[in-house]
Amino acid sequence: MAVLISGAGSNMAALIDAAQPSDAPFEVVLVLSNKPDAGGLAVAQARGVATAVVDHRPLGKDRAAHERAVQTVLEAHGVEVVALAGYMRLLTPWLVGRWQGRMVNIHPSLLPKYPGLDTHARALAAGDAEAGCSVHLVAEGVDDGPLLGQSRVPVLPDDTPASLAQRVLTAEHELYPRVLADFCRAGRGRTQ
């Protein structure tokens, strides 16, 4: 499995930790970031996982060139499953199609509610009684694709977007490794 990140990589760290037991159904062989200064790269290196950077900035708006470079790195590491964990890039149909049924994402809302950004503020503004996170197969739409699992947390009366985000993040760290383990045990991420 490769984990793609753009930032601190707390979900990535949870996945690496979940892969440590000898009976874990997946191994994290690569952490790839589109940002050279992503804090998660150092976290992955400290845990002994190979890292790579495919910086999108030098390529300007050429998403295809960036994704071809990402694909080359994934292939070089023998990756069978891609887990997006705070990878803040909109993917083109080309890359999504290459990983159809083998690319998974975690999103901080109870999809189909609140795809995209500012999920916690949107949940609070709507007066939702609960929030949460969703793991889904990646499809061409933003935060779209078949759901693999969800975790719910209550919205508290004094919640702010930051306090709600922290509780949802704790739920993400439990949900993502569990869902990916089930996904890999079922053999759904294997190449044919």
From TrEMBL:
<comment type="similarity">
    <text>Belongs to the GART family.</text>
</comment>
<dbReference type="Pfam" id="PF00551">
    <property type="entry name" value="Formyl_trans_N"/>
</dbReference>
<dbReference type="InterPro" id="IPR004607">
    <property type="entry name" value="GART"/>
</dbReference>
<dbReference type="InterPro" id="IPR001555">
    <property type="entry name" value="GART_AS"/>
</dbReference>
<comment type="function">
    <text>Catalyzes the transfer of a formyl group from 10-formyltetrahydrofolate to 5-phospho-ribosyl-glycinamide (GAR), producing 5-phospho-ribosyl-N-formylglycinamide (FGAR) and tetrahydrofolate.</text>
</comment>
<feature type="active site" description="Proton donor">
    <location>
        <position position="107"/>
    </location>
</feature>
<keyword id="KW-0658">Purine biosynthesis</keyword>
<dbReference type="GO" id="GO:0004644">
    <property type="term" value="F:phosphoribosylglycinamide formyltransferase activity"/>
</dbReference>
<feature type="binding site">
    <location>
        <position position="63"/>
    </location>
    <ligand>
        <name>(6R)-10-formyltetrahydrofolate</name>
    </ligand>
</feature>
<feature type="binding site">
    <location>
        <begin position="88"/>
        <end position="91"/>
    </location>
    <ligand>
        <name>(6R)-10-formyltetrahydrofolate</name>
    </ligand>
</feature>
<protein>
    <recommendedName>
        <fullName>Phosphoribosylglycinamide formyltransferase</fullName>
        <ecNumber>2.1.2.2</ecNumber>
    </recommendedName>
</protein>
<dbReference type="InterPro" id="IPR002376">
    <property type="entry name" value="Formyl_transf_N"/>
</dbReference>
<dbReference type="GO" id="GO:0006189">
    <property type="term" value="P:'de novo' IMP biosynthetic process"/>
</dbReference>
<feature type="binding site">
    <location>
        <position position="105"/>
    </location>
    <ligand>
        <name>(6R)-10-formyltetrahydrofolate</name>
    </ligand>
</feature>
<feature type="domain" description="Formyl transferase N-terminal">
    <location>
        <begin position="2"/>
        <end position="180"/>
    </location>
</feature>
<feature type="site" description="Raises pKa of active site His">
    <location>
        <position position="143"/>
    </location>
</feature>
<dbReference type="InterPro" id="IPR036477">
    <property type="entry name" value="Formyl_transf_N_sf"/>
</dbReference>
<comment type="pathway">
    <text>Purine metabolism; IMP biosynthesis via de novo pathway; N(2)-formyl-N(1)-(5-phospho-D-ribosyl)glycinamide from N(1)-(5-phospho-D-ribosyl)glycinamide (10-formyl THF route): step 1/1.</text>
</comment>
<feature type="binding site">
    <location>
        <begin position="9"/>
        <end position="11"/>
    </location>
    <ligand>
        <name>N(1)-(5-phospho-beta-D-ribosyl)glycinamide</name>
    </ligand>
</feature>
<keyword id="KW-0808">Transferase</keyword>
<dbReference type="GO" id="GO:0005829">
    <property type="term" value="C:cytosol"/>
</dbReference>
